[in-house]
Design goal:
Blueprint lengths: L1 H37 L2 E6 L4 H16 L9 E6 L4 H11 L6 E5 L1 H10 L6 E7 L21 E5 L4 H11 L5 E6 L4 H17 L2 E6 L6 H9 L5 E4 L3 H5 L1 H10 L4 E3 L11 E5 L1 H16 L10 E2 L3 E6 L14 H6 L2 E4 L2 E4 L3 E5 H9 L2
Parallel strand pairs: 1-2, 1-3, 3-4, 4-5, 5-11, 6-7, 6-8, 8-9, 9-10, 12-13
Antiparallel strand pairs: 10-12, 13-14, 14-15
């Protein structure tokens, strides 16, 4: 019996050591899982690189941080950009809705639609922003009830002030009679903007001339076709195809000595006469705050979809030079601007010089 005990004792010791090591490894693994899960993972998806989208995404990050979700410390952010390519957008949407993220943040209607279509099994929470009208996007958001939307989704719409921009153009030039607009008719946002532009033009007695462009390379020819029809100015809305080619629009307009005005700040830096739109840094911040609330436990199903348009006016006084017609910025309009460019450079409300004259001249020379 003694011999048997002596024989079994080393085996029992080995088994005990194996059990202890296994338990330790399991504890470490469980600790690692808890540590990993303690930091939520968020995918930030935008459709194209544009100033307005970039400003919004920076606002997302700042808004999240204001709620205690700081990238790399209390939240892990991963950024995706489809660079304007729809197949890429759909591929990204599939990646971010496979269950590996706790939340998806989208910037643009196209990104919202792609993620919503890929997320029909509700694998991930979804907060959207930089969307003109969520109710018209076909993802199940009601036009009348802010709480009637897919339970895994909420966000903020921002419908650009197309009508106000046209009225502002008429104030700057009371003789404005014909406005040209290039747009991509397949974009839902553009359909909404165009409908609003048609309505306001009819009210103001302005003739709206339109040309379709299927891609950014077609924008130049479409713009020239409108110039040939005798327009007094170009209106550019939130159409993503046209926004990518805004420099081309400005170049075509300058050749005929007519202005371009938009509803997407800050395109005055690229030569437009004025931009009357939303402050997307502020919009993005609000979306980021909403996303932080969702990460903290707010129920998306009980969170209403809202509409927020903090208006921002940008003026480019240097773009007045050489224009045909009587284009003059009233002093009270300049006083109300959040940003303006003159011979001294770019200024912000409050007296700050945002861009010195040398930089402004270099920017103008590049156009």
């Amino acid at each position: 019996m003694k011999a048997l005990i002596e024989f079994v004792r080393p085996l029992l010791l080995g088994i005990a050591l194996i059990v202890l090591v296994s338990a330790g490894l399991l504890a470490l693994d469980d600790s690692g899982r808890k540590s990993s899960s303690a930091m939520p993972r968020v995918a930030v998806v935008q459709h194209v690189s544009q100033a307005v989208m970039d400003d919004a995404v920076r606002g997302y990050v700042e808004g999240l941080a204001s709620q205690g979700f700081v990238d790399g410390k209390t939240v892990s952010l991963k950024f995706y950009n489809a660079q304007g390519d729809l197949p890429t957008a759909n591929d990204i949407a599939r990646q971010v809705t496979n269950g590996s993220f706790d939340l998806v943040l989208t910037a643009s209607t196209v990104s919202m639609q792609a993620v919503a279509n890929a997320n029909k099994q509700s694998k991930v929470k979804h907060v959207f922003g930089t969307v003109a009208n969520a109710a018209s996007s076909g993802v199940g958001v009601s036009a009348t009830d802010p709480l009637d939307h897919p339970p895994y989704m909420t966000g903020i719409s921002t419908f650009f002030p197309v009508g106000r921009a046209l009225k502002l153009a008429r104030e700057i030039n009371p003789g404005l009679r014909r406005v040209g607009m290039v747009w991509h008719s397949a974009e839902i946002n553009s359909q909404l903007f165009t409908a609003a532009a048609r309505k306001t033009c009819q009210e103001l007695g302005i003739e709206l001339l339109e040309a379709d462009a299927e891609n950014s390379s077609a924008v130049g020819m479409a713009a020239k076709s409108l110039v040939a029809r005798g327009i007094d100015a170009f209106l550019v809305t939130g159409d993503q195809v046209v926004m990518v080619a805004i420099e081309t629009m400005v170049s075509v307009a300058r050749a005929d000595r007519i202005p371009v005005f938009t509803i997407i700040p800050p395109n005055v830096r690229k030569g437009t006469l004025f931009d009357l739109g939303a402050n997307y840094s502020e919009v993005g911040h609000d979306v980021g705050v909403l996303a932080g609330q969702v990460l903290a436990g707010a129920d998306t199903a009980k969170t209403p979809v809202s509409n927020h348009v903090p208006e921002s006016l940008s003026l480019n006084l240097t773009a007045l030079k050489g224009l045909r017609g009587n284009w003059q910025v009233p002093p009270e309009m300049l006083a109300s601007a959040d940003r303006w460019i003159d011979e001294a450079g770019e200024h912000r409300k409050g007296g700050a010089l945002a861009m010195p004259a040398a930089s402004a001249a270099a920017s103008a020379a590049s156009r």
